[in-house]
Write a structure and sequence with these properties.
By secondary structure, this protein is mainly alpha-helical. The protein has 11 helices and no strands. The mean pLDDT is 87.
Length: 231
């Protein structure tokens, strides 16, 4: 497999891992907050908020990428604001991370929300009765019990970020060494004669990374479950 891949291909793999890591890391805290709000809170417009969170799942990825381009491009409101701060994310790897985070966010929220909903509310109520604040109840009761779902959501978000194509190519284009992630590199190799071997090598790398992520998530989930049973 190493013979099929050159420095440019490995650069695409490294960039994909970088994009997926930051997309997952930055979106996880917000995903936990939104999941808890949807699972435990009642507020006006809750169904609308739930639909908005899951909208990237049903919209064509190209539409999401185009909306990001309109918002954070050079003429967009977000783009002008960031430009005033000396920051640009359109056609940058940071833009790929943003697009990947948005596309993976619904998967993270769904897994974490289901896990939080499975936590027995009587335990939370008992802690509140004993004088624990809402934040303390969340940190000491809800969060630890929902940890398997959080791990699952994290892996799903990471996997989605690794495989994101449509929104990424629309928002940040396909620039080798700058925004060309693993899926975009595979696409590029399939467009040129003789690129099949390099594309196949990248496909194998993507499968290995995906399988490794799934195995790790399963191992972590089992360890967490054993610890919870021990307590």
């Amino acid at each position: 497999m190493t013979g099929w891949l050159g420095p440019a291909e490995w650069q695409a793999v490294a960039l994909s891992l970088k994009v997926a890591f930051w997309a997952t890391l930055l979106s996880l805290p917000l995903a936990i907050f939104v999941s808890h709000a949807l699972a435990r809170w009642e507020f006006p417009g809750k169904q609308f908020a739930n639909g908005l969170v899951h909208l990237p799942l049903i919209l064509p990825p190209v539409v999401t990428g185009y909306l990001l381009l309109l918002t954070f491009g050079a003429t967009g409101l977000g783009g002008r604001f960031l430009d005033a701060l000396g920051v640009s994310i359109a056609f940058q790897w940071t833009g790929a991370a943003l697009a990947s985070a948005i596309m993976g966010f619904p998967l993270m929220v769904r897994a974490i929300r289901l896990s939080i909903e499975a936590v027995d509310q009587k335990l939370e109520q008992a802690a509140s009765t004993l004088g624990a604040s809402r934040l303390r109840v969340f940190a000491t009761i809800t969060l630890p019990l929902a940890l398997p779902g959080i791990l699952t959501g994290t892996i799903l978000g990471f996997a989605k970020a690794m495989g994101e194509f449509g929104a990424t190519i629309t928002f940040v284009s396909n620039i080798p060494g700058q925004t060309q992630t693993l899926p975009l590199a595979i696409y590029s190799f399939l467009q040129v004669p003789g690129g099949e071997s390099a594309a196949l090598g990248l496909v194998i790398v993507s499968i290995v990374i995906a399988m490794a992520a799934l195995v790790l998530s399963e191992v972590f989930a089992r360890r967490v479950a054993k610890r919870m049973e021990g307590t």
